[in-house]
Amino acid sequence: MAASGRGLGRAWGASRCPAWRHAHWEAGGRPRPEYDAVVIGAGHNGLVAAAYLQRLGVNTVVFERRHVIGGAAVTEEIIPGFKFSRASYLLSLLRPQIYTDLELKKHGLRLHLRNPYSFTPMLEEGTGGNVPRSLLLGTDMTQNQKQIAQFSQKDAQAFPRYEEFMNRLVSAIDPLLDAAPVDTAAFQRGSMLQRLKLLSTLKPLLKAGRTLGAQLPQYYQVFTAPITKVLDQWFESEPLKATLATDAVIGAMTSPRTPGSGYVLLHHVMGGLEGIQGAWGYVQGGMGALSEAIARSAIAHGASIFTEKTVARVQVNGEGHVRGVVLQDGLEVRSRVVLSSASPQITFLKLTPQEWLPEGFAERIAQLDTQSPVTKINVAVDRLPNFLAAPNTPTGQPLPHHQCSIHLNCEDTLLLHQAFEDAMDGLPSHRPMIELCIPSSLDPTLAPPGCHVVSLFTQYTPYTLAGGKVWDEQEKNAYADKVLDCIEAYAPGFKGSVVGRDILTPPDLERIFGLPGGNIFHCAMTLDQLYFARPVPLHSSYCCPLQGLYLCGSGAHPGGGVMGAAGRNAAQVVLQDLKSAG
């Protein structure tokens, strides 16, 4: 992301990353004066775009302001001996063709698939010496139904039909992720021949409509209704509904009762790993290992990647065409095109000369909804959490539920709504929604023997606190203590196992990773900011108002998550434009 940086710049692969001595970089760590393409930001989308461009002969350089590549898909050793996926922490949404095209396995990517994948323990007294109930979900439908039947036989019977219903919607939407949205502006200004050519871009939309068929009205409701309304039509048991609803609100400043919350759920169930639809997993070595594999692919074909090199502004010639960038250290780098994986706000409000933007464009970018509820807490522990609902074995070895997304304070959708309402009043949630993951349960390389790294994705925490308070160390630690108190109720002894923690509130996520308002999607994944309208209407096809400038990050279609689609799609648009320009 392009914000403040430091130093003269380090070519990626230099001494800080000894495993990368084979990587290509310029002598003395200085870029050449000219490339075909400049990519701003070495987040995963920027790296994907660079890899695709370089593979097809477009000489590409990537500039990253931080000392490490990956953007939010990064591994950092914040506490000695403990390697954290500091921001993003799970993989599923990365487009399948990216694995294949960029040969990511060849370049070192290793995955740990999770099965089971979801665990929701109850806060309740066990009866007759039994432990409290819990809901454990995985890939075995028969086992899922047995788990759900603890709470409702009716829901157990309905669950396979619900899964089939959602999978059909995913299959309809999936092709839309891999192409630029229909360019409505081009339909208005293009010649008749251009308009006829553009009709072909409607095919994915038409195909989606055919796939959904007569059920289209029901599917339309998934996009527009509150997820509680959708789930109430399928199920009666709150633990199941609340568990499913977490995917509809995670990362979003919305309640399960907010209209349109269903799309975020869809966004989080449309992935898959190694041919298994809906599968989620951990990356061996943390999420930074994924970014490193993409970078290896780019470098293998001749791309250059520089860290600690901050882009200060995009340069424009007298005809209004991009001609490169200026780095914070004053170095000018010329290029035919510039792709920005930074947020729309940073790209257009900080890096782009405002006089070259259309009237009103900057105002629309500034008005994007970037509210974020997320505080990410990374915790180092000296033993596994021991849940009342699923006690550990005497040996303390990981059990199946330890590999899951563990949902706490998620027994009832009302709890999620109340947590949201606290944030609307400017207060951190009194009972935050917590998604707890333990990647070291499957990847022991992340922590010392017997120890573990714990990811706590929590919400809701407002960017701006009520009463004039700010997110200082006192407020951050008070909130983190509240989160640990909640976990303690489900897993007594957890607080005593903590040896260190890293607390990232929305302002921290903005400052460190360049996420506007701390929003993990760059801007909200609401219906008014999707597809034709991402980031704003008439500018949704990766091309920007400034000729030669392209948006390739999560603020472009199809949005956030470690998907890579925005980077890949933007690279395809750039390649077409370069070919047309000759």
TrEMBL record:
Its main location: mitochondrion. One of its GO terms (biological process) is mitochondrion organization. Residues 46-575 form the Amine oxidase domain. It is found in: Mitochondrion matrix. Keywords: FAD, Flavoprotein. GO terms for molecular function: oxidoreductase activity. GO terms for cellular component: mitochondrial matrix. SUPFAM superfamilies: FAD/NAD(P)-binding domain. Belongs to the carotenoid/retinoid oxidoreductase family. Probable oxidoreductase that may play a role as regulator of mitochondrial function. Interacts with COX5B; this interaction may contribute to localize PYROXD2 to the inner face of the inner mitochondrial membrane. This is Pyridine nucleotide-disulfide oxidoreductase domain-containing protein 2. It comes from Marmota marmota marmota. The lineage of its organism: Eukaryota, Metazoa, Chordata, Craniata, Vertebrata.
